[in-house]
Amino acid sequence: MNDKRELLRSLRIEPDQRRDEASAPPRRRPLTLVSVLLLLLVGGGAYMLGRASAPEPAAPLASRPSSPTTGAPASAPSAPVVTRASGLIASGYVVARRTATVSAEITGRVQDVLVDDGMVVRQGQEVARLDDRLARIDLDLAKARVASAAAQIDALNADLKDAERIVQRTSSLSRAANASEADLTRSQARAETLRAQIRGAKADLEVVRISVDRQAETLDRHIIRAPFDGVVIDKNAQPGEIISPMSSGGFTRTGVCTLVDMNSLEVEVDVNEANIGRVRPGQPVEAVLDAYPDWKIKASVIAIIPTANRDKATIKVRIGLAEKDPRVLPEMGAKVTFIES
Fold first, then answer.
1. Where are the domains of the chain?
2. Each residue of 83-110: pLDDT tens digit?
3. 23-62 burial by CB neighbour count: b if 16+ within 10 A, else e?
4. Spelled out in words, what is the top-level CATH class assigned to the domain 99-130+222-258?
5. pTM summary value
6. Is the domain defined by 262-339 classed in CATH 2.40.30.170?
């Protein structure tokens, strides 16, 4: 009974409490839902008005399918098609068919190197000189032997003339019985001996003359010349180094420089064995260097090397460039497209 009274008392509103609630300012109800609804209505109306006022865009004619019932062709002209090279693609490198390591024909010490990397040389131009002091001495000795042999021949000729006079005098005396037959025979034998000595001296003279020519050639070999027109791509030797035509180990060089004929540049590519049937000699090719990807070079197949690489299962193909250009350099990477008709 007491519990019910307490509950009723707690629910009763006193007069003071009523006055406080009446004097309090009215609470504001949240307007979030109403605001969102108004914004949606305004935005939807603006969108509908915009669509009603804007003209409807025409669909592109090229993208419209033809009517299956009428079969009429599209009236709009088709866009031009750009023809590009297509076909088998292979990669490789620019190589020089004519390259050489310029070396000496004899062993010697380098005295001067007359070229440097990137220098253009002509056939026969001097590229280096070896120390030739000993070769010059040998040439002078050979020339001295020639002079000595010639002088010996002159002396023998003089003796022969004297011997021939003696033979003539002895012969005259023998006819007059003032000289014996033995004296005549001895004088004739001496003259014949001198003639034989002269023939031997002339042969010796010819030998020493050949020796002079050989020594002069050896001296000329101390000058190293370019074997053909080209560009020096690598300078290998320096003054003071020993150079030899054959490798003998140690610090001995085998070449002065490396020379490349820039007119012999071509591209070598590896083609997979499975695709080699798509390549033929004379086939047009489009080559692109890795250094100039936007530069397309006209080329053609020179030859298919008749052997395969068993490790890579590829066959090497030689590609000739239609134009010569200084931008093309040996060992540049290249990609080629074999144009298939």
1. 99-130+222-258, 133-220, 262-339
2. 445 689 999 999 999 999 999 999 999 9
3. eeeeeeeeeeeeeeeeeeeeeeeeeeeeeeeeeeeeeeee
4. mainly beta
5. 0.61
6. yes
